[in-house]
Amino acid sequence: MEEFRLLGKVNKPIRRIVSLAPSLTETLFFLGLGERVVGVTEQCDFPPEAREREKIGSFIEPDLGKISRLKPDLILALGRIHEKFFEEASGGDLPLISLPSTKSVEDIFCLMEEIAKLAGEEEKGKSLTGSLRERLKLVKERVKPFPPPRVFRLMIEDPIVTPTSSSYQWDAIRLAGGKPMPLEFEEPYTPVKLEEILRFDPQVILSCGVRNGEKPRRRCPGCRAQNPPCQRIVEEIGKWEGWRETQAAGEGRIYPIPCELICRPGPRLVEGIELMSKLFHRGSNDRH
Fold it and tell me: Would you say residue 287 has pLDDT above 50?
């Protein structure tokens, strides 16, 4: 994992924390640091208590003025997403830490432990991440006897984008007992052609969205997409040109997975892995 980038000086002890991403907010509350969180983004909706914190703008465009007025001891940002904000804040002396990209689930756990250490809660952080590792261990033991199905993770369809082996999502699919599409790239996400997917012939397709007849998911604050993936009816994917030729479509194994359980590199990702393990081995789990 890459190194942290620090701008300014972190104030110790850390009593006031601003989070610039939903995954970081979830992590802070999971680590028992929720009472120290004084500012979050408009998209930070979990746990429910996070919605009561001061809003500092959107996930993509945090408001530097609002953040400064909160007088934080620590600001947590994501390197890949908040590069522009990091440059904007470089003229001041804010206690801003830019966190590295996570390429695996274990990277996420290590990052959580580092955040706990920063906050002076190192032992508590190790204990809590240890509980997540134990849950993963149970999943690995449960799926070990079964052959891994070929799994394609559909993010957006125009162009078709999916995780690569440099993404924690790819790693999460693998840990859940699936065989993700073999894409060895440095970038965590990549566009792929339909022809490549058909050659891979996924046995399972995972997509953000809902099943036919289910209530549409709530749009994230600030979402302007005409057809956001979270509103997608997943059964329709199996009717698309080309996609209906896949084994997944033929066997009706196109499943929705909540965005918050796979798109956020935080503690609930383990819940997403547990869910995927059941979807990948549906039937097999019923017999064992």
Answer: no
